[in-house]
Amino acid sequence: xxxxxxxxxxxxxxxxxxxxxxxxxxxxxxxxxxxxxxxxxxxxxxxxxxxxxxxxxxxxxxxxxxxxxxxxxxxxxxxxxxxxxxxxxxxxxxxxxxxxxxxxxxxxxxxxxxxxxxxxxxxxxxxxxxxxxxxxxxxxxxxxxxxxxxxxxxxxxxxxxxxxxxxxxxxxxxxxxxxxxxxxxxxxxxxxxxxxxxxxxxxxxxxxxxxxxxxxxxxxxxxxxxxxxxxxxxxxxxxxxxxxxxxxxxxxxxxxxxxxxxxxxxxxxxxxxxxxxxxxxxxxxxxxxxxxxxxxxxxxxxxxxxxxxxxxxxxxxxxxxxxxxxxxxxxxxxxxxxxxxxxxxxxxxxxxxxxxxxxxxxxxxxxxxxxxxxxxxxxxxxxxxxxxxxxxxxxxxxxxxxxxxxxxxxxxxxxxxxxxxxxxxxxxxxxxxxxxxxxxxxxxxxxxxxxxxxxxxx
Length: 458
Prior knowledge:
Among the domains are: about 20-120, CATH 2.40.50.140; about 145-280, Response regulator (Rossmann fold, 3-Layer(aba) Sandwich), CATH 3.40.50.2300. It is built from 13 helices and ten strands. It has helices at about 1-10, 15, 25-35, 80, 125-135, 165-175, 195-210, 225, 235-240, 260, 270-275, 280-420, 430-455; strands at about 45-55, 60-65, 70-75, 90-105, 110-120, 155-160, 180-185, 215-220, 245-250, 265. The strands form two sheets. The chain has a five-stranded mixed beta barrel with strand order 1-2-3-5-4. The longest helix has about 140 residues, at about 280-420.
């Protein structure tokens, strides 16, 4: 069998070189065939307009089959575009009047459009608008819902094709700005029938990774048909439901896909996505150095200002202290002078008071001596008067006593005689004793009265 394979691949290249067509000959033949068959092509073609790019000389766009993935490139020259009743709008189902044009140099076939008429929205466009309305009603397109991206992410998860240039562009952009950021690539199909489940699975895998700070969904541009998977509801919902901030960059500037609309940030290209998700560490370092210089300058200025302020405060405090010391010195001098004045005044007052007191004492002594002499004379006089009074009292007492005794004796005699007269029957011993008692009492009373008279006279 192996020998058969070797025989089948063993042929004379030199012999075939003369019969093989060159690219130019092939393209020329194709051009000739298409030119000869021009009558076989329709004048009008129906499809959906997409990927419109306008220039001064004309407008390039694609016409996509309404029910299939078939696409053909179109060009409308500026003079034709000027006659269109309505501008070319992506997503519009339209009928174009065109001719087939083949470029032999590049081997490209396209339609040269002379006119076009919108034929109503295609089913896909209607579905897109319905989904957009649903997302708006749920608030998923609101600007206030969009979250800010981490300023200094440590890990970025990237959903893209592993074979495309988008991966290299994004990685290069990130590494040029922040080489220390970790990039986790999660490969996915970014166009075609398998794109939707592949994109959803990749986004969800990165969403479950707690180390990922930002998710980037990106690809390197393409036609509307190639990018339609980013309008599919599963992809849009996966991005909207992610708790991690999401950046979508699909390299398509004309229209915003729904994936970009619900994302937290939209970027035009993979390179722009790298710029949007990472800080420029060179700029950060430069800013830090500028801040450091500003801090140092501010610190130096503040320190100088504080030193001048402290120096002024110290000088002011020193001056105030000197003034206080001078005031205290003056006060102490005044106190010393006052103390001397008080001492002198006290001495003078004490001496004056002592002199006055001595004089008063001398005067008082003289007065006392005079009073004593006067009292002595008075005492002698009083003693004489007392002696005279005593004599007079004695005489008066004696006279009174004598009178009283005489009167008493007379009364006694009278009483005795009366008692003798009255007590003739009872003149016994008992009566006599009773009379003696009465006499004794009367004598005591007489003596008491005399004593009272003496005391009264004294």
